[in-house]
Amino acid sequence: MKRLKSRCTYAVVLEAAESDGEIGSIAHYLSTLSLAECEVLIVDHSERFEEHRRVLRWVGRHVGGTLDVIQAAVELGTCEKVIVAAAESRYTAAEVESMCELLDRHEVVEPEEYVHPLPWWGGIDAARILVHRGADQAPERRSTFAFRRSVFRDHNVLLAYKAKNVFVRREPPRLASWLKVRRHDRSVDLFFLALLPLLVVVAVFGGMWMATECAGLMAFAAIGLAVRGRAGAGKFFPPHACLYAPLWIAERSISVYWALFERLSAVPAARLKPMSVGVTTPRETNGSATTIA
Description:
alpha/beta; eight-stranded mixed sheet; 17% strand; globular
């Protein structure tokens, strides 16, 4: 029987060691992509590569090494159109088809995302998406996008098209995985960095009641932005997802100091390298990190 030509390369990245149950769920999902005529490429950066391979080799090409997911898709994929996704992304055949059609006209396509189901940490991620939509800003972290291989090979300046009508579901990670991502997120946003000191200053000079009112106004504004962001996406975000917006503001205001501490603690460690006359220390090599999460 003649093998049908794949519509696109679906490149999924595994950054962390997954449990057997999670790998089984990922493998089941990837096996459904054959119905969407996808060539599946699995880029595995986890320490359980060999264990994952026993399951994942049956649903796609399973590779490791230091290549990031974009390089792997460009160098190892066979299709012109490429969809890059995190392990939590869940495309349907219709969404794959929509992305491929958009790639006929655009170099890079970025779909909308939504989170389902919604445990409390998933609700925080959903609120983050809604607040960014409400503020007309790009999300901090993107789980998936698509591109044409030829434009990366030509080293062109790429312009991303925002696919406002394509919504891709994202499963919430395990709580431990979510906390780990928050811990290693080293982005420092000056707005969130200033929130806690601002509330402290207001409490010192205006009293706790005024600080409480200020925090309440911030929470109300965050919910308002989330409600605005839900416009046109109500099918994918339940109304109560907007109520998680103040929790996202609080979480971001705390984690930004965590990120700042990680940065500052990394500076002395980088300076204190072992030195010895006549001795050459091994050179460390690290794989490239992906831009999706």
